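Quick log. Single chain, no ligands specified.
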Amino acid sequence: MSIRKRASSKPFFTLAALSLTAIVGLGFFRFSASQLEYRLSVMERSIERYAAEEIELKQSLSSLTSPIKIYSYCKDRLGMNAAKQETIQLPRLFMADAAAPEPQKGWRSSMFSFFGLTVN
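-> predicted structure:
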């Protein structure tokens, strides 16, 4: 009488369960990656929008600070008129009366002046 062993189906079910778990896990990772990609694209679009807004604001600021714009705003809205420019002539002052510094007499004078002494 020969005893035949039947192949057990336990390894097959274990392999199938592991494969199914791996497929579900990879699907979950793919889903989370697509969610992260979507959030990244939303952030990139907002960065581009803010960059365009920054450029627009810089242009409007430069137009507001131009001298012609300031002059026309002051003239039209504030009623200011440009004053005539006058030159003022100041008398020249000469420093001839100021005492000229005494010339140094060499290294000895600088050394003795440190101690408050003078060299003749």
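The mean pLDDT is 80.
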